[in-house]
Amino acid sequence: MTTPASGNLYLDIHLIQSYPYSNLNRDRQGAPKSAKYGGVMRARQSSQNGKRHTRLAVENATGIRALRTRGVPKAVARRLAGRGWDKETALIAGQMLILAAGVKGLGIADSQGTNALLFLPESALDELAELADAHRGEITQAVYDIQTEAEKAAKKTTRKTAPAQEEPEDGDEDEPVLGEGSLLAKYAAKVLTKADVLAILQSRNASVAAFGRMLANEAGSTVDGAVQMAHGLSTHAATTQLDYFTAVDDILQDEGTETGAGHMGDNRYTSATFYRYACLNVTELIANLDGDTETAQSVTAEFLRAFVTTVLPAKSSGTAPFTVPHLVYAAVRSDRPVSLVGAYETPVPDTSDGYIPASLTKLAEHAAAHHRFLGTEGLITHAHSGLTDQTFSALGDRLDGLDELVARVVTTVAQEKA
After folding, report:
1. Is pTM beyond 0.85 here?
2. Where are the domains of the chain?
3. Which end of the chain is more exposed for a tag (fewer CB within 10 A), N or C?
4. Per-residue pLDDT reduced to its tens digit, 279-308
5. Which of 108, 137, 113, 139 is nearest to 125 (CA)?
């Protein structure tokens, strides 16, 4: 089954997992997300939701954290305040750092944060604070000059009839209040070097290397993520179920003055057996980490573990949907990623046996069909584990638990990328 190392190395992970009555991932109306596939409606778990919770679990395990945030100026300001800066100057310094980068369209919103989400290593906040602190004198003088110039401009404006300002239209919240051409941007370019700021914004760690980053109009910050994750779909047709509920007013009940509910409403839930799929491009991960294979192996192990064990917590207090997969199938390939979602294009039918037995069988049959069609030369190793005690020859060796599966994958990656 093992082949010589090639230029590409992919880890495919396939899960079959049953969830009880729950709402794992809500749409904007509060209903469980859904999608039409194979001509019928399915329950759906969005890839964005799965990626976030998986990323947080990987970061917690590795201790390497990145932040997706609009709050970089405020976070830098807090660090500067801890160094003795006054709060107003510290916040302006944090904003100047963003504007000094000179990225077209990136500016400061009326919330005082950036007008777009940034994704950068947590350590970058300390580096930005260090950079500002190194220019403390120039920044402090610039803040004074900005305030003076703004006051002069305000006096001139009051002598004229100010034009009426239009109300912002819906969707305009991302337009920067302070951006290119602003007074703050002009002074930021004077006291800070663009290359110094960009070097920090472009920095990456294991989390950025795995999950990727895109900053519009700044190609140097873009990192093609090594992780690709599909939307999870139920293996069968699924519908939303309505739950009418009431809440009792305890004081009124104790007094016996009134009966009935203190509150009533309804929630929407679903129950389903899901097929979930993710791929990790190990070769790209190593490249994003500048050849650091040791860190890449650690991320690979923790990504596999996190994708299998991470809990999607939406409405968990009322449903406790803390299940684990009935089946985990992992394959290390040298040819290309392979999703097996096609096994469920024809939905699993309702039976008194539930959906899991047929879902497992269809996955194994579909994998066998892929092996026949594509061959197995690109399949370096594959194995399965989970709650089921069944063995599926098309899914490689059956291993006793997740630890063995992780060990198999990491050993293979180490051998192939040695």
Report:
1. yes
2. 10-64+226-240+271-416, 68-158+174-204
3. C
4. 999 999 999 999 999 999 999 999 999 999
5. 113
